[in-house]
C-alpha cells in the first residue's frame, strides 16, 4: 500500500561535517551507558565512554506547567524554517510549499548547493526568496533566532536532533524533528522540561501515525471493534545494508556508525507510535517497562566482506548493534507491545503493525483482519471492506501527493492546520519522549540480559486523563 522503496526517514548529515562523522569511527566496539546523565551532551560527544546510568524511574521536578492540551497560537500564515535539505528535508519542502497558509521563510544546510536548490523551489512556488544559512554546522542557530519563524523543522542526522530542538525552543519556536528526537534519557527529560518552561511544542514528526491503515485501525480500535485491547506490535524491519554502505546516499557513514555504538533498537518510533496511539498511551494508559533481547551482530560485517573493497574506511569499524532486536513493552493496564528493529539482514520491508483484543486482531504486511462477529472459521477477512472507517483526513485527501503512500502529506497538512487554527497538536513532547525512550532503554536491557528497564512517566501523572490525539474530529475552517 505504501511506497517504501526508501527509508521513512532518509536525512543526510547536513548538520554535521564529514570530519566530525568520520572522527567517531574510532569508537568501534565501545559500549555506552545511556541512563540519565550517562553521556556528555552535544553531537561531538555522541560516542563518549560508558558511565553508570541513573535510575530511569527517577522523575525530575516539573519546571513549568504541563503542555498537555495546550493549543497553538492561531495565525493566518505559518512561517516555517527548515534545517537539513538532504534526502528527507529536500523532499519534505515540497509538501510545506503545497500547504495552504504556509510560507517557507528560511533554509539551512552547510552544503550550499542543497540550500540553493531548495530556495529555487520556494521561489518557483511563488513565495518570496527565503533567507539561507550555509556557514558551517552551527548556522542553524541563526535561523532559530529569526523573529519571522513560527515553526522549525529539523531533518538532519540523529546526533543533532536534540541540540536543534533545544535551540528552537530556547528561541521561542515550536519545533518538529524527524525521529528519533534524541538518544539519551536525560536529553528526553530536558526536552520535556524545555517545552513546559518555554511553552513551545516539541514534536516527534512520526509520519507512520498518519498512514491510511494505521488511522483506520485507530478509529476502529476506539470504536471497540477489537473489543478490549490486549496486545500490539510494531517494527522497523528494513534492509538498509546497501544504503548504509553507499558513500553518496548518507553523506558520510553517520547512520552506519550508530551500529558501532549501541546494541538496542535504534529506530523504534515508526512501529511504536501507531500502536501507542491505538492503546491511548499517555491518554489513559502508559508504558511502564521494557525488556529487550538482541541477536549477534553479523549482518553488516558479512555485507562488508562481500561488497566493500580492501582499504575502505568501513573496515576500521566493529559492529555491535544487534542484527535484530526484540522488545516487550508493558503498559499500566497490563497490555503488551512487541517492538522489532532489523536493518542489517535481507528481508522484505515490514512495520508489522498489529493490534489484538478480545474481539479479534489486525495484522499488516500483508494487511488482514479477523474480528467477531464479522469473520469465522479461522479465515482472514479483507481489510479493504472497512474503508468506511478511514479517518476524515484520508476521506478528504484520498490521493495525497508525496512519498510513503501519502502519509507525509497528511502529517504536514494536519500539523499546519492545527497551527493555523490554533488547535491542540495531535501529539506532543510527552509522546516524543515516550516513543523514543526504547533507544537508550533497549540498549540497557540487552546489556542486562533482558532485565526490565522502567520507562519514565514523562507526563508526570498526566497520562491518567483521557484526551484526544491523532483520532481527531474535522475542525471547522474559517
Features:
single chain, about 475 residues, alpha/beta, six-stranded parallel beta sheet, 15 helices, about 30% helix, globular, disordered N terminus
Give the end-to-end Cα distance, rounded to a whole number of Å: 34 Å
What are the secondary-structure elements, in order, as H or E? HEHEHEHEHEHEHEHHHEHEEEEEHHHHE
How many individual helices?
Answer: 15
Helix percentage? 25-40%
Backbone structural class: alpha/beta
Strand content: 15-25%
User: What about the largest sheet?
Assistant: 8 strands, mixed
Shape: globular
State the strand order across the main sheet. 13-12-11-7-10-9-8-14
Mean pLDDT: 89
CA gyration radius, whole angstroms:
21 Å
Number of DSSP-assigned strands = 14
- Poorly predicted parts: 1-54
Description:
By secondary structure, the protein is of the alpha/beta class. The protein is built from 15 helices and 14 strands. An eight-stranded mixed sheet has the order 13-12-11-7-10-9-8-14. Strands 3-2-1-4-5-6 form a six-stranded parallel sheet, with helices on both faces. The protein starts with 17 loop residues before the first helix and ends in a 24-residue tail after the last strand. The N terminus is likely disordered.
